[in-house]
TrEMBL record:
Function: DNA ligase that catalyzes the formation of phosphodiester linkages between 5'-phosphoryl and 3'-hydroxyl groups in double-stranded DNA using NAD as a coenzyme and as the energy source for the reaction. It is essential for DNA replication and repair of damaged DNA.
Lineage start: Bacteria, Bacillati, Actinomycetota, Actinomycetes, Kitasatosporales
PROSITE patterns, alphabetized: BRCT, DNA_LIGASE_N1
Name of protein: DNA ligase
Superkingdom of source: Bacteria
Pfam families: BRCT (PF00533), DNA_ligase_aden (PF01653), HHH_2 (PF12826), OB_DNA_ligase (PF03120)
Gene responsible for this protein: ligA
């Protein structure tokens, strides 16, 4: 699904060495190995992972030429700052899987190592995107905190004791134990941290992970930043009196939780025990679905063998244990180039900047625009046109520009220019607040909005030319679109200069009022929704009430509205609530007649709307040859709509019975929601001759 930045296969020793140098330089910047505390990545993770895979592929193909100190077999690519505190047991990294197939392959390799099936089951827990630490407790008191470092030696960062939520200074039991886990900024802590840093004139952190890693290592900052901890393991240091020998992973974490440490069990995406890899995969998908709503970053899901004896039997490589794997989720942060900053004037006259970017693949979608807040914020982030910037996307929120990678700034980069006059009307700008606005306020855009609404393919009020509109706005008779519907003959005659023209306008406005919902939507002039999209929204929802009730997810069911546009459109409807109420009160039509835009076919519902169909797994029988796109086409030709996830609105789930007899996670969901599940054969029957 996600396309990745291309990395050429390495074919010569020179290319191989150059790739290693790039990986190492990126890793040094990433882990702060150059001694720079507020480390700044020069490559994004997706690119880094691709480069590292290319190095590994070359080493597989040319085993004799692999460098002894290759980043492929060193923790942190051998580039993290190493301290002088020896670890009790090495702190390793994790092997990665990027697909269900790779997770299955890992399960099979684990079985091969054990020489029999895994009996103790697996745990599935979030992979928190922060920095790893080992926290040593003696008799229940936290005495030392150490970073991962190179896995064998770490840095003493005990100065953070007392500032990390979830890592208490005292346990509820006098245990002597080393707790291992991840330290990070939650989203809220990250925003606080950047606010505090801005107040102290310090550079803002480019992302929560780098910020947390830098904060761990910074010993004498004049301010304190709150961090959060989640434990994902422990090392017994008192001969089994706190952690019984042989306690499975899940039980170790339960004991830590009981002792007062926050663990991956105490998390909205909590650790679960499962029996099979299929169940693990289903839980991975659940956690992935939760990701946008989590108040902190995760970059994957970790699956581990729960049983300690099985862990021991599987063993370790130089870089990672064989009994655990990180299922990586698509990147939510990428770096790309800032091409330009555009300024739009909002309905109330606010000047809103947005960044135009070199298109980049982020969390499964291509991103070309990102939010910027206001001029002061642009200056705080020290953004230049031409900069390489980090772009961050949490859930379905519009992506935002986080920071510039100052180290990569080209010589000809220029500070982002700020507007000198209103970009819409050319008038003066009120700069008294952080958000700049046109001094005309709402009146800045109103004449243009009304002229737009009056066009033929919108409300079609032919006689309402620019001069009359300006007169109506200037006299105060019209302050929004809804006011058009309440204008009387006298006011219109005055604006138009004669009673005859006034009467003509009254008749046209009366006709406009009766136009269907799609035209009324168009007249609202919502950014990103032209005439066509207004038609689709109206055909999909049928009533204004349904449109207003739709959240971003529901809005995306309209063809042509993706995760990028949906939140802005939903927000615009909310903002326009008073105008819509006024239009409704003035008698404007707020429904769309069935027929207009409604389809025909076996997948058209009784209400004339397309039925939602979700397809999962490989097709069989008469549909065996059809891939994803062909199935989607077929569903649409039948008048339906294809969707990715099973929801209460899904009409059918088409699923081949799985080979192992185990229902897929979608099938389980369908059953829970009472959605009908059809075999490919049954579905083919339903479609009838559409298949030929
Ligand atoms: N952008 C760059 O330039 C750059 C450079 C180096 C590394 N990286 C990124 O860093 C990652 C590799 O770094 P890594 O070797 O530190 O490994 P990693 O972060 O991918 O995975 C290992 C770490 O995961 C952490 N973790 C979080 N939750 C866990 C859980 N529930 N159970 C166990 N461990 C858990 C542990 O700290 C462990 O050390 C890659 O994703 C790579 O893209 C990026
Ligand atoms: Zn203006």
């Amino acid at each position: 699904m996600t396309t990745s930045p291309a990395v050429e296969a390495l074919t010569t020793p020179a290319q191989y060495e150059a790739a290693i140098a790039r990986v190492r330089a990126a890793a040094r910047a990433y882990y702060g190995g150059d001694g720079d505390i507020a480390a700044e990545s020069v490559m994004d993770d997706a690119m880094y992972d691709r480069e590292l895979l290319a190095v590994a592929a070359y080493e597989q193909a040319h085993p004799g030429q692999a460098a002894a100190d290759s980043p492929t077999h060193q923790v942190a690519a051998g580039a993290a700052p190493v301290g002088d505190v020896a670890h009790t047991v090495p702190m390793l990294s994790l092997d990665n899987a990027f697909s269900a197939e790779q997770l299955t392959a890992w399960g099979e390799s684990l079985q091969r190592r054990l020489g029999r099936p895994v009996e103790g089951g697996y745990t599935v827990e979030p992979k928190l995107d922060g920095a790893a630490i080992a926290a040593r407790y003696r008799d229940g008191r936290l005495v030392q905190v150490v970073t991962r470092g190179d896995g064998r030696f770490g840095e003493d960062v005990s100065h953070v004791i007392g500032t990390v939520d979830g890592l208490p200074e005292r346990l509820r039991t006098p245990a002597t134990v080393e707790v291992r886990g991840e330290v990070l900024f939650t989203q809220a802590q990250f925003e606080d941290a950047n606010r505090i840093r801005a107040e102290h004139g310090a550079k803002v952190f480019s992302n929560p992970r780098n910020g947390a890693a830098g904060t761990l290592r910074a010993k004498d900052r004049p301010y304190r930043l709150g961090l959060t901890f989640w434990a994902y393991g422990a090392v017994d240091l008192d001969g089994g009196s706190f952690l019984p020998a042989g306690a499975p992973h899940s039980e170790v974490l339960a004991l830590l939780s009981a002792a007062g440490v926050r663990t991956t069990r105490d998390n909205p995406a909590a650790l679960r025990c499962v029996r099979t890899i299929e169940e693990a995969q289903a839980r991975v998908e659940e956690i992935q679905a939760m990701r946008p709503s989590l108040p902190f970053g995760i970059d994957g899901v970790v699956v581990k063998a729960d049983d300690v004896a099985e862990q021991r039997a599987a063993g370790f490589g130089s870089r990672f244990p064989y009994w655990a794997i990180a299922y990586k989720l698509p990147a939510v942060e990428r770096t790309t180039r800032l091409l330009d900053v555009e300024w739009n004037v909002g309905r109330t006259g606010v000047l809103a900047p947005r960044a135009r970017l070199e298109p980049v693949e982020l969390d499964g979608t291509t991103v070309e625009y990102a939010t910027l807040h206001n001029p002061a914020d642009i200056r705080r982030r020290d953004l230049h046109i031409g900069d390489t910037v980090t772009v961050y996307k949490a859930g379905d929120i519009i992506p935002r520009v986080q920071a510039a990678v100052v180290g990569l700034r080209p010589a000809d980069a220029v500070e982002v220019p700020l507007p000198e006059a209103c970009p819409h009307c050319g008038g003066d700008i009120d700069r008294s607040q952080e958000r700049w606005r046109c001094v005309k306020g709402a009146a800045c855009r109103l004449p243009a909005l009304i002229a737009y609404a009056a066009q033929r393919d919108c409300l079609d009020i032919d006689g309402l030319g620019t001069t009359y509109v300006n007169a109506l706005v200037a006299s105060g008779a019209v302050a929004d679109i809804a006011d058009l519907y309440t204008l009387d003959l006298e006011t219109l005659s005055r604006a138009a200069g004669s009673e005859k023209r006034g009467a003509n306008l009254v008749a046209q406005i009366e006709a406009a009022r009766l136009k269907p919902l799609s035209r009324q939507l168009c007249a609202l002039g919502i950014r990103n929704t032209g005439r066509r999209l207004s038609q689709r929204i109206a055909a999909h929802f049928r009533t204004m009430d349904a449109v207003r009730a739709a959240d971003a997810e529901a809005m995306q069911e309209v063809e042509g509205i993706g995760p990028e546009k949906a939140p802005g459109i939903v927000a615009a409807f909310a903002e326009l609530a008073p105008v819509i109420d006024k239009m409704t009160a003035a008698g404007a039509t707020m429904t769309e007649p069935v027929g207009e835009g409604a389809g025909e076919g076996p997948l058209v519902g009784e209400d004339g709307r397309p039925m939602k169909v979700v397809v999962t797994g490989k097709m069989t029988g008469p549909l065996a040859e059809l891939g994803r796109t062909a199935m989607k086409d077929l569903i649409e030709r039948a008048g339906g709509k294809s969707g990715d996830g099973v929801t209460a609105q899904t009409a059918y789930l088409v699923a081949a019975p799985s080979a192992g007899g185990k229902p897929s996670s979608k099938a389980i969901k369908a059953e829970q929601l009472g959605v009908r599940v059809l075999t490919p054969e049954e579905f083919a029957d339903l479609l009838g001759d559409l298949l030929d």
